[in-house]
Amino acid sequence: MIQHILTLIWNQRKSNVWIFLELLVVVCILLAIMDSFLVDIYTYKRPLGFDITNVYQVNFAKDNTQTGDTVDYRSEGESLLQVVNNLRQCPEVENISICSSAIPYTWIASWSPLKAASDTSSSKSYYQVYDVMPDFFKVFNMHAEDGSSLYEQVLQNPGQYVLSYDLAKKLFPTSSAIGQEVKHVDNPEWAMQDRVSAVTTPLRKTDFDRSEPVYYQLLRTDKDLLDDLQEYKISPLAMQCVMRMRPGFQAEDMEAFLQRQSERLQVKSIYVSTVTPVSDYRADRLKSRFDNQAKKIALVAFMMANIFFGIVGTFWLRTQSRRAEIGLRAAVGASKTRLRGQLYGEGLLLLLLTLPIAIIYMANMLYLDMPDTDRLAYTGWRFFTTFGATYLVLGLMIYLGISIPAGKITRMNPADTLHYE
Asked: Can you name the residues that pair with 55 across neighbouring β-strands?
């Protein structure tokens, strides 16, 4: 059967070569489209490593009329901690924590080098670093590498550092990072050295980014925070505060909540100025990406419409032009099923003949590093998914372009079609 169909295709090669070239171009275009969408969808659906549901940033301000020009960093830090403790006691608040440069989807970032204490090389790599108190991991519902609570693991294990999964594998590829010594190498004279307390699941900055190596420096107690503020002369207003509200709390309830707690939201000169949902930061951060995706989808939809009408129309006209041949075959005893099967076979076999060239095309694209292999490695399942989806879509289009006219022709009386021949 296949040999017979190949013979028919070869006998009609003058017309089939143009159809083959059209299919080849469409296959290459669809492969690029399918691969791009696969990477975007796969990346978007991967776990972020944190949960911002019902999480808010508490913004603080300072009443200078009470303090004048003098700055007492420790005293102001104590006031900040008291306001945070007041909020922690509210029944609507599930968890609350202080951090620095650590809120997801914000543009504020801090970078610092880190290496294994046993690494004696002079090279150093910089990673994004977050200063957090342990409650931060409860606020964002973060988990350890083994799936357990990251907060509980931090409390159980001594150490100042929490590494992301990617950084732990980079620094300690052959052993567990927990309990290992790591150190800053910014200044060799006072290189800070301490143990790794825990390892997180892979962490991603946004929904469209791959996971990256980052780490957390722990401020385990209020005293640690106050000592840092005083030693480095950091204003408490430079710190960030995040809180998770209990399930059922709505964003529109925040104003009423703040009004009820108004007397507890100021201690000495430090007071709560505004409260912002972290989801707002996500919307702002991803707006350009979503806009680009919308444009991409619109462009792809336009291209798919053109491909659809092009492929369906081509095989529709091809089938219509062979009405006399089909009628003649029906007149000599060919069944409707056999006639349709032969037409489907010709169309699908023409499509399959593009497969070797399509594989060469994709291999060349990989050689030129055109597909996105940074967010998703080009593995076997990615190959079969993109090629399978491409050939399935085109196969359905070819089926549709053949089935409707072929159905009409095979339902005709063979004698009525013989005059075409």
From this structure: 244
Element (H, E) at 60: strand 55-62
Q: What is this structure's pTM?
A: 0.85
Q: Which token pair is 399?
A: 């089926």
Q: Which two tokens stand for residue 390?
A: 């491409």
Say if CB 229 and CB 78 are below 8 A apart. Answer: no
The answer for 204, left when phi > 0, alpha when psi is -120 to 50, beta otherwise, is beta
Residues 372 and 366: their CA atoms lie apart, in Å, by 9
Helices (H) then strands (E): counts for the chain: 14, 12
Cβ neighbours for 153, distance < 8 A, ≥ 6 positions apart: 144, 197, 198
Is 215:224 a contact under the CB 8 Å cutoff? Answer: no
Q: Are strands 270-277 and 55-62 parallel, antiparallel or unpaired?
A: antiparallel
SS3 category, 326: helix
List, for residues 331-384, the tens digit of each pLDDT value: 555 555 666 667 777 778 888 889 999 999 999 999 999 999 999 999 999 999
b or e along 176-199 (b: 16 or more beta carbons within 10 Å of the residue's beta carbon)? ebbebebbbbeeeeeeeebbbbbb
Torsion on CA atoms 36, 38, 43, 47, rounded to nearest 10: 170
CB 398 within 8 A of CB 316: no
